Amino acid sequence: MTGEISSVIGGKQAAGGTDYDSINPSRVDEVVARIRLADAETFSSACRTAAAAQREWARVPAPVRGRVIASIGRLVEANAESLARLVTREIGKPYAEALGEVREIVDTCDFFLGEGRRLYGQTVPSEMPDKNLFTFRVPVGVAAVITAGNFPVAVPSWYLVPALLAGNAVVWKPAEYAAASAEALYRLFAASGLPDGVLNLVFADGAATFEGLEAALDEGTVHKVGFTGSTEVGRRIGELCGRHLQSPCLELGGKNPMVVAADADLDLAVEGALFSGFGTAGQRCTSLGTAIVHESVHDEFLGRLTRALAAAGIGDPAGDVLCGPLLDHRFASRYEEYLGWIQPHHRVVSGPTGRITAGNPRGDFTGEGGLYYHPVIVDGVRPGDRLFLEETFGPIIGVTSFSTLGEALELANRPGYGLSSSVYTTDPATAFRFREGIGAGMVSVNNSTSGAEAHLPFGGNGRSGNGSRQSGMWVLDQFTRWQAMNWDHSGRLQKAQMDVVEIVPDVNFRL
């Protein structure tokens, strides 16, 4: 065990709280860290601390804040292997994926370190003489950031880095089951020289967090909420923020479609489906939900995918495997509910289902001591099935067929999520028609539904979010507000739309 971990507010450890054990899902008897979970008052207190610290942080010149972000990037890079090993141990993510996740923090820092010199406003021409118009980006104030644990360090960086760069203070509430990874990332941020109180770390359960957030919003000490998690909880947070006339940044679930056209490179499509369906044990918001395959290649695609999955490694995430265990007991229980959605008209083509045990092994692998589950491919899903319509957070994908691109698009959009999507085709016209017709915020052509680069906008629509975007320059719209200024040096009051010189044309002129 790495020791006992508690919240950090204003640079100091918070006292009190109830115990929670973060476990290693590969060996559930191993406790990675014991967490002291805070109450609602601790969360709202952290928001008050952040509000006091934010005013001074906002006065630090933006290019200097950019240098702090650069330091964070270098610190993470220097500690990449240690941080990745901790992520693998705490949530069971294969080490290669965990190392890629840590790399994403570095990429995010590398992008935003220069944005400190590019928080551009504009000089706008006035309609009147001796008058200048300007726009400025200003920080929103305090951001309350609540993140899930399937990407325990990369996704938080999408919020923390731009929020801090823009001059905000942050109260960050990570997932309890990934607390050790979060605490390690916090320490790397703190080592960059951030003043006390600018970044605060609060460990709490969902109920205490919501109560504390509600109190902070009532007090006016939170000005932006960022949330990554389920659609159900996202709705509640959106309703709470709406009462305070705030627009949160919501990154929610997905039921991400992959359309495989008749002319697709099937080997490439299978590779993409395998990674996006079963990487991180299917526990990504961008994981493949349903493969929608043209009827002429359906059987061939399904056969190749089934064989590829059978050959893939499942097991110890420290090794070279496609996927390891589920994140935590709560996700294992929920996944078993999803397996109950398999209906008699479905055809499970991947073999056994359920937890991998000595009595239900995967080849020679018995999954001893871990939350390992058989990856599942279900053919014959229908548009009215729960398995087709709802997010299934775990290693299970559905397969169905289509005859026309219009039908494929209708199927792809039907669940009402709108996060990620993919189309495999060798026809540019099909690719562009798919892009025009899909409701997802992200589209991949001949690539998986999972995987985003740090300088592209990340986010979804519909049940996947409220249209907000993370990553790249677009996320700055979440953590800054536009301020307009007019400066009249004419020495007299000039009234807009009233004291405007009019040049009159001869509207009756004809050649």
Automatic annotation (TrEMBL):
Keyword Aminoacyl-tRNA synthetase: no
Region (Disordered): 1-21
Keywords: NAD, Oxidoreductase
Chain ranges of the Aldehyde dehydrogenase domain: 18-484
Active site positions, chain numbering: E251
UniProt-listed Enzyme Commission number(s): 1.2.1.3
Gene Ontology molecular-function annotations: aldehyde dehydrogenase (NAD+) activity
Keyword Oxidoreductase tagged: yes
Top enzyme category: oxidoreductase
Signal peptide coordinates: none
PANTHER family in alphabetical order: ALPHA-AMINOADIPIC SEMIALDEHYDE DEHYDROGENASE
Subunit field text: Homotetramer.
Family, per entry: Belongs to the aldehyde dehydrogenase family.
UniProt name for this protein: aldehyde dehydrogenase (NAD(+))
Originating species: Streptosporangium sandarakinum
